[in-house]
Amino acid sequence: MEGTDATVEERHRAVLGRRHTLWLTGSGLSLIAVCYGMARFAYGLFVPDFRAEFALGAGTAGVIASGSYVSYCVAIIAATALTPRFGGRAVAVAAGVIATVGVVTVAVAPTAVVLAAGVLVAGSSTGVASPPLAHAVAHTVREQLRDRTQAVINAGTGVGVAVAGPIALLTHEQWRAAWVVFAIICALATLWAALAVPPGQTGRSVRPAAGRSRPTLAVGSGSLITAAALLGIASSAVWTFGRDVLVTSGGMSGSSSSVAWILLGTFGVLGAAAGDLGRRFGIGNSWTATVLVMGAATALLGVLPGNLGTALLAAAAFGASYIAASGFLLIWGTEIYPDAPATGVGLAFLVLALGQAAGAPLVGALSERGSPLVAFLAAAAVAVLGAVVRPRGHRTS
Questions:
Q1: What does the alpha-carbon distance between residue 240 and residue 54 come to, in Å, rounded to a whole number?
Q2: In CATH, what is the architecture of 16-202+219-387?
Q3: How many CA atoms lie within 13 A of 80 on its CB side?
Q4: What is the pLDDT of residue 234?
Q5: Using CA atoms, how far apart are residues 250 and 120, in angstroms rounded to an integer?
Q6: Upper half-sphere CA count for residue 112 (Cβ side, 13 Å)
Q7: What are 118-165's pLDDT values in tens digits?
Q8: Domain extent listing, the chain
Q9: Which of 60-64, 100-104, 213-217, 341-345 is predicted most confidently?
Q10: Per-residue pLDDT at 82 exceeds 50
Q11: Backbone angles phi, psi at 33, to 5 degrees
Q12: Which residues cross the membrane (predicted)?
């Protein structure tokens, strides 16, 4: 019976050839790059500029970042539900359109309120982007290539961050010009998604085997939820205040801190190896190692924010480890929910964002009432807790 079910499922898949798989991978990576690397995480790159332009305190900056994560959570719930109904292409294109609108709003924001609204809309695009891409890969890419393809697409975050950094450097203090450029790139990535992402299954989803009902939470979901939440809290310090702490606490110049951000994104591309690492060493071992590295990098930025060499090393290590860890969460989710990959990815990234939504204002409050050092060390401690969580269920362990 198991063999029959597998055969039926494979008939429902329109498996892509190598060339079309590469086309989908490139498009997915680009969409993730603009939604995560620009529409969402570029906020952290420009926090020093936003604080100067709109007279924002660290706490307020953290609350705005938190709003972006909350909007992400709402969006990923909607995208997870809508993807099986409307297919990967429609929802992926919607993600690109939302990112473009949000980025344009930030670029023209006359007040802090409008800025916050733009950040909220832009941040929601990331929640819309991940489920349809995971859905498209799961239903069109050959099984032996799926984990690698998912991880490469997920590494688009690093590409987006790496591209955003040079744009920030070239535009100098003209941050609005940088966001206009981001908007143009978002529009181009949206067009590519419209051309490359397959429509996918619509109006139905693959049924579970006869006689089995799908539980609300699959076996292994508890550890996935815990790991994602702790990763979100721990990573919020660097994503929201990483560049700010280099400038305000470390006395680093805008150009030097931007270079650190570029390295963070560039080395984040190494997270594309998550799929291969997971297959070789197991998701559990790989997860523990990468999250511990991320925690060490966070602590290092808090302890020595004024040392350029240390800051560059820490930023590179954080980028590589965070993207890899989020890639492991993605694969972990698809394996726990093999019949509904969008649901698995949606759950993992929803909880990840909830952790970041809670972490950003907490880090901001700790920085104001204590010091950035205390805040970053606290985030590093949460990373250590997250590293001990082990995947359970399916073939993740």
A1: 17
A2: Up-down Bundle (1.20)
A3: 21
A4: 95
A5: 29
A6: 15
A7: 999 998 998 899 889 888 888 888 877 877 887 788 888 888 988 988
A8: 16-202+219-387
A9: 100-104
A10: yes
A11: -60, -45
A12: 21-43, 55-78, 90-109, 115-139, 151-171, 177-197, 217-239, 259-275, 287-305, 311-332, 344-366, 372-389
Distance CA 297, CA 329 (A): 20
Residue-wise pLDDT for 266-322, tens only, equals: 888 887 776 677 677 887 888 999 999 999 999 999 999 989 999 999 999 999 999
With tokens 């990483």, the residue in question is 242
Distance CA(391)–CA(329), nearest Å, equals 9
The pLDDT mean for the chain works out to 83
Nearest residue to 127 via CA among 331, 332, 357, 350: 350
- How far is Cα 92 from Cα 97, in angstroms, rounded to an integer? 9
Spatial CA neighbour of 87 closest among 140, 135, 20: 135
The per-residue b/e assignment along 306-319, b for 16 or more CB within 10 angstroms, e otherwise, is ebbeebbbbbbbbb
Q: Would you place residue 233 in the very low, low, confident or very high pLDDT band (cuts 50, 70, 90)?
A: very high
**pLDDT score for 394:** 46
- Burial label, 213 (beta-carbon count in 10 A; 0-12, 13-18, 19+): exposed
Q: State how far the Cα of 260 lies from the Cα of 279, in Å rounded to an integer.
A: 31
Whole-Å CA distances, 193 to 88, 95, 148, 352, 393: 10, 10, 19, 25, 33
- The DSSP letter of residue 35 is I
CA–CA gap between residue 340 and residue 85 (Å, rounded)? 12
**Cβ neighbours of residue 53 under 8 Å, at least 6 residues apart?**
175
Total Cβ atoms within 10 A of residue 274: 29
**Closest alpha carbon to 53 in 159, 174, 148, 167:** 174
Q: If phi over 0 gives left and psi between -120 and 50 gives alpha, with beta otherwise, what is residue 87?
A: left
